Amino acid sequence: MQRQEEHTLEAKPARLSRTILTEIILPADTNYHNTVFGGRVMQYIDKVATIASMRHSRRGVVTASSDSLDFFAPVKLGEAIQLEAFVTWTHRSSMEVFVKVESENLLTGEKKRTATSYLTFVALDEHGQPCPVPAIIPETDEEKRLFETAETRFAARKLRKEERNLNL
Question: For 77, how many CA atoms within 13 A lie in the half-sphere containing its CB?
């Protein structure tokens, strides 16, 4: 379990990092199926997660990893795409960010969960070096669930990185 004393900064509620990005899907955003390019969704995910991690750390950040991106449904031309991101857990200088993606048919109001993703960001000091970040205080059931399972994801990321380094 993460403890506040592991960090030199005062812990912050996860809600303070919560960030929402909404866009309308236009023809330039779509493929030949008239659905949004997966790469465009990835771009939006990285953008909203960057903002959430900067809100939490109040530092410049870099993307360290993108653990997963699971697509559940397409986002169609003319629909809105809404991404919600928040910091779920922190280590010394790293932050895990969860992003959920939803589409909305703006004519009917129908909404669908379209994707979820986990990313890791590292906060940087004024010299571009990793620096400590505040711990997270989860408040909602969703935040608590993600917080409680974060160390397992952290360990899996670390193992995956070690295995890839051995294969180089």
Answer: 9
* Token pair belonging to 39: 């790469």
Averaged pLDDT score across all residues of the chain? 93
Measured in degrees and rounded to the nearest 5, phi and psi for residue 157 equal -60, -45
> In whole angstroms, what is the distance from residue 15 CA to residue 81 CA?
21
Detail the DSSP E strand segments found in the chain. Answer: 12-13, 19-24, 60-71, 80-90, 94-104, 111-124, 136-137
Q: pLDDT tens, 124-151?
A: 999 999 999 999 999 999 999 999 999 9
Hey, which residues does 21 pair with through a beta bridge? 83
Side-chain-facing half-sphere of 162: CA atoms under 13 Å: 6
Ordered domains of the chain (ranges, CATH)? 12-167 (3.10.129.10)
Residue 32 three-state SS? coil
